[in-house]
Structure formats: C-alpha cells, structure tokens
Write a structure and sequence with these properties.
Largest sheet of chain A: 9 strands, mixed
Strand order of the largest sheet of chain A: 9-8-7-10-6-1-4-5-11
Distance between the termini of chain B: 50 Å
CATH architecture of the largest domain in chain B: 3-Layer(aba) Sandwich
CATH architecture of chain A: 3-Layer(aba) Sandwich
Number of domains of chain A: 1
Number of domains of chain B: 2
Strand content of chain B: 25-35%
CATH class of chain A: Alpha Beta
Radius of gyration of chain B: 21 Å
Number of helices of chain B: 10
Structural class of chain B: alpha/beta
Pfam families (chain A): ETF
GO cellular component, one term (chain A): mitochondrial matrix
Shape of chain B: elongated
Oligomer: heterodimer
Helix content of chain A: 25-40%
Subcellular location (chain A): Mitochondrion matrix
Strand content of chain A: 25-35%
Subunit structure (chain A): Heterodimer of an alpha and a beta subunit.
CATH topology of chain A: Rossmann fold
Helix content of chain B: 25-40%
Largest sheet of chain B: 7 strands, parallel
Order of helices and strands of chain A: EEEHEHEHEHEEEEHEEEH
Distance between the termini of chain A: 59 Å
Strand order of the largest sheet of chain B: 5-9-4-1-2-3-10
Shape of chain A: globular
Radius of gyration of chain A: 21 Å
CATH class of the largest domain in chain B: Alpha Beta
Organism (chain A): Stylonychia lemnae
Chain lengths: 255, 322
C-alpha cells in the first residue's frame, strides 16, 4: 500500500500577520515560510505507518510556486520517498481554494492508485478545514477527520480512527482507500537530521503544471477585501483580588 | 430565497449552536427549513425542541439507525438529497466539529466551495466575513456558486430563546446511505457536570502556569462558585500539549472558539493562537505573575500575582458575596 500526503507551504506560525496596503491579501513578501504544522503531523503519521510495515511508500504532494519545492524537500528529509509538485502562481492562501485542491489530490490518487491520503485537518493560512472532507466526497471514498489515533487493519483493508470532537472522543471505522485528516495529538513530528537532508536531495520530485491537469481550479470565492481586525484595547492592572471583584461587580457588572 | 439550516441530532445543547442564525435569517427574510436527523426513537423529541423556535417554515426529518450516531457521509448524502429535491440556495450549519466535518462533504458532493467559519453576513447575504490566519486578518468573500454552503461561528450571532410550541409542518425524507463506507463505533464523552464551553456564560481557563493537571481543581472550584450551570473550564494549547488536560478543553485557533460574558485566563501567556479563540469575550480577566505576558494587552482587568494564591482567594471572596 502507498500513501499520498499533502504538505502546504504557509507563513510561519510565529510571524506577525500584516495585511498589504491595497487590502487584497496578507503580506507574504520576504517573510519566513514553513510547512503547515498539521501537515508535519500528517507526514509523521505516514512515515510511522511505513516504519511499521503497514504501507510501503510515502509520497508528498505540494501545490504552489517554485518555492513549494522547498517544502517537498523538507518532507523528503523527514522520510517521504518521493514528491509531487503541482506548480501554480495562484495565491495558495486565498485564490487556490479547498475544492480545487481536493480535485488535484483526487486526480493523483486515481491515476497513481494510492490506498491512503493523509492531510492536516486545516492549514493555518486560510483556516478553511475542508480539503480532506471534500476529497472523500469527490472520490466516493470515506474520510476520517480530526484523527487523534489511526489503526490500519491491512488484512481487512480498513481503519479504526479515534476522532477529536466537541464532546470528547469518537471512534469510527472506515474502509480503505480512505482519507485521513490529522489533529494535534495524533503524534509528535520528528526533526530531520543533516544526513537525511542530504539524502533528500537525491529523491525524485515529479513536476506538473496545475493548468495542464485538466481540472477546474478557478476560484469560486472572490476575495473582496482583507483587513486587520480591530485591536482589543488593554485595560487596567488591578492591585488586589478585592479590587478585581469590585471592578467585575460594579464596573463590568458581570458577577 | 429558500434556506436550510442543518440540525445536529439528539443533542439539545447543539440546538443553541445553530439557533443564532435565526436572527440573521429573519432580517434577511429567508424562508427557513430545519433539517433534523437522528435515530427513530429520538426524532420526535428533537422535532418537539425545534417547534419551540420562531421563524421556521417547516421541519424536515430523516431517521434511521445510521443517523442515530452518524458517520459524516450518512448525513452529507442524506443532505444532498434534501438540498437537490427542495432547490435550496443556502445550507447553514454551525462551526462545530460536526458542522466542519459534514458541510465540506456536502460541498464535494454538490461541486460547491463551502465557506466555513463565517462571523458576519454582509450586503444582504451576498458577502461573508471570515477570520483567516488565526483571526489575525479578516477576509470578506463572495461566492459564484449557486448554492452557498456555510458554517457560522455561533458566538458571533445573536441568540433567540426558545418560546412556546409552534405547529410547523413536518416532512420526512428517507435516509440515504448507499455506498457509505464508514461507520460509527463509539463515543467517549468527557465527563463533566459543567455546561459546554461553547454555551458557557463564564469561562475559567488555565495555561502552562497551572504546572500540572491536578492543579486545575482550583479552577473547577472557582467555576463551581460562579455556578456550574453557567461556567465551564477551558485550557490553552500549551496546557493541553503538556498533557495537563484533554484536548476537548482547548481554546484557540486549533481548539474551540468561545465568547462568554466573562473569560478568566489563569497562568496563560496569551499566544496568538490562544487569543484567536477567546478575544471576542465581553470581559477578559488575566491572572499571571509575569507582568510582560501578552494576555494583559487584551485583558480588561489584569492582576499580576501568583495564581495559586489569587484563585482560592477569588473563589472564597466571590462565594462570600453570594
């Protein structure tokens, strides 16, 4: 069996977000970009499956401009066997949208016969939280979202998945092939060592042009405006519990 | 304009997550049908609950064993049938784990790009405001899809209370479960006598400063004093990652978004990802011994002191007031 893993290049989570002066998008110029943190969990999970002998091959797919190749190299350094780079100059944080991304993955899964697709539950730029669910529907295969534990039953071609839901945890069973989206506590991603980074340079990356894939990737959502939220004003520092209670009772009137 | 509001099965609490759209809906003069799904034994009870809310045109029900504790595709496939047979132009669910799971599935089935986590409906329902980058930017979008599939963040919409029972027509639709290749196995519900985080009036939340899970008991004591029917206990991602408390308590970009009347952040530094989950609270109190903590920049009232001294004192003194 083999797994396809999505790795998206996003603005590093620690970088302060600023909107461009034209208010058409978040400013990304010259800023540090990293692999989407949930995708690090996805790649880790797939590599662990291969180490456990559950699957034999891990392929990392990224969509984006030339620089997305760096994110694929990072996945290869972490242990993926090969990469697929679907090139586009569209802004992947707003103009390439989950429905189109799911169609790219669907095409690759169909053509290259993947048994599993492992994705992060959301990317930390557009925060949509949709691609895995849409992908399952497009392919007519099950998707297990917000996974915090994935157990693959190779003999019976199915998986038992523990999901993080609002009331606690939920266990479901899905037939393979299937899509999994990863939540925070599925695993702790490893770091790549120098040796594996060097080795990654020799691993193959197949390159496609998004426009040549024959899919409808035109954005359905038009971004009318992007703006900064109103900053919340800090209040006062109180000197004691008594003063705090007095403020809450008499000024804010919440207790 | 016709609209469909999805309704989570058999959990009365979830009704409160979906219901805030009603106010918006009435303003926009949509015709609203409510979709209720569940097990055959529970469906009439759910319909009875929905009948108590104003502004509905009709209630559409679907009951089957699979829908009692559904796997996502059971719901999305049934919804697809309902949407297509009634020509709805909007499908709305709340931004809950359930809504986020099911609505994109429906989008994939209908070739529609869903709009998740809407915090404001603008321009008579033509544009939608949603947070991006963990709420550090806000994006206004419009959609070229014929059907708009939305999830809304319930804390940003005005709630309508249940009233006297109405007699809206109820229409049954057969559950659709052909080729569903997944199934529900079990729920493991976190045990708490307290109200759910999403609907709590007060939230007391602990961070890495709590030092361990055992220490969260002082937060539960404070929550009890504030009233366990109104108050829930949450946590920052740092506290969850450190293994102090389970993930369903996590408030933030990657956890739950809350906006209670009063949010008390205890031993929480105020990372961007946490602020994204609580900065719309009406009144924020921060208790932290580090005067430089970022949480003080968003707090209405800050107290720079040792939480292990302050929290028991706060509990005791609020109790004395009552």
């Amino acid at each position: 069996m083999k797994a396809l893993v999505g790795v998206k290049r996003v603005l590093d989570y620690a970088i302060k977000v600023r909107v461009n002066p034209q208010k058409t998008g978040v400013d990304l110029q010259g800023l540090k970009m990293s692999m989407n943190p949930f995708d690090e969990i996805a790649i880790e999970e797939a590599i662990k499956m291969r180490e456990a002998g559950v699957i034999q091959q891990v392929v990392a797919l990224s969509i984006g401009d030339k620089n997305a190749a760096e994110t694929i190299r990072q996945a290869l350094a972490l242990g993926a066997d090969s990469g697929i780079h679907v090139q586009t100059d569209l802004r992947i944080d707003q103009d390439l949208q989950p429905l189109a991304v799911a169609k790219v993955f669907a095409k690759m899964i169909k053509e290259k016969q993947f048994d599993l697709c492992v994705l992060g539950k959301q990317s930390i730029d557009d925060d949509f939280n949709q691609t895995g669910q849409i992908l399952g529907s497009i392919l007519g295969i099950p998707s297990a979202t917000f996974s915090s534990k994935i157990e693959i039953d190779v003999a019976n071609k199915k998986a038992t998945v523990t999901r993080e839901v609002d009331f606690g945890l939920q266990k479901i069973e899905v037939q393979l092939p299937a899509v999994f989206t990863c939540d925070l506590r599925l695993n702790t991603p490893r770091f790549a060592n120098v040796q594996s980074i060097i080795k990654a340079k020799k691993k193959p990356i197949e390159v496609f042009n998004l426009a040549d894939l024959g899919i409808d990737f035109a954005p359905r959502l038009k971004v009318e405006k992007v703006e900064m939220p109103q900053e919340r004003q800090g209040g006062v520092i109180v000197g004691s519990v008594d003063e705090l209670i007095s403020k809450l009772k008499n000024e804010a009137k919440v207790i | 304009n016709r609209q469909l509001l999805t309704q989570v099965q058999s959990q009365v609490n979830n009704l409160f997550q979906s219901q805030p759209i009603f106010r918006e809906t009435l303003q926009l003069q949509f015709q609203v049908d409510i979709f209720v799904h569940g097990g055959k034994d529970s469906i009439s009870k759910q319909v009875e609950e929905v009948q108590k809310y104003p502004g509905i045109r009709s209630i559409i029900t679907s009951a089957s064993d699979d829908l009692s504790n559904p796997y996502g595709d059971h719901v999305s496939q049934t919804l697809k049938k309902v949407v297509e047979s009634h020509s709805y132009d909007k499908v709305i669910a709340s931004t809950s784990a359930f809504g986020k799971d099911v609505t994109p599935r429906l989008g994939g089935l209908l070739d529609v790009q869903p709009i998740t986590d809407v915090i404001q409906v603008i321009n008579n329902g033509q544009q939608f405001l949603r947070p991006i980058y963990a709420g550090n930017a806000l994006s206004t979008v419009s959609s070229s899809d014929k059907i708009k599939i939305l999830t809304i963040r319930a804390t940003n919409f005005e709630k309508i209370a249940a009233g006297s029972a109405n007699t809206y027509p109820v229409k049954e639709v057969a559950a659709q479960n052909d080729n569903v290749q997944g199934k529900w196995l079990e729920n493991n519900v976190s045990e708490s006598e307290m109200v759910e985080l999403g609907s709590a009036k007060y939230v007391v939340s602990g961070g890495r400063g709590m030092k361990n899970g055992e220490n969260f008991k002082i937060l539960y004591e404070l929550a009890n004093v504030l009233g366990k029917q109104h108050c829930a206990v949450g946590a920052s991602r740092a506290a969850v990652d450190a293994g102090f408390v389970p993930n369903d308590m996590q408030i933030g970009q990657t956890g739950k978004v809350v906006a209670p009347d009063l949010y008390i952040a205890v031993g929480i530094s105020g990372a961007i990802q946490h602020l994204a989950g609580m900065k719309d609270s009406k009144v924020i109190v921060a208790i932290n011994k580090d005067p430089e903590a970022a949480i003080f920049k968003v707090a209405n009232y800050g107290l720079v002191d040792d939480l292990f001294k302050v929290i028991p004192e706060l509990s005791q003194k609020i109790k004395a007031l009552q």
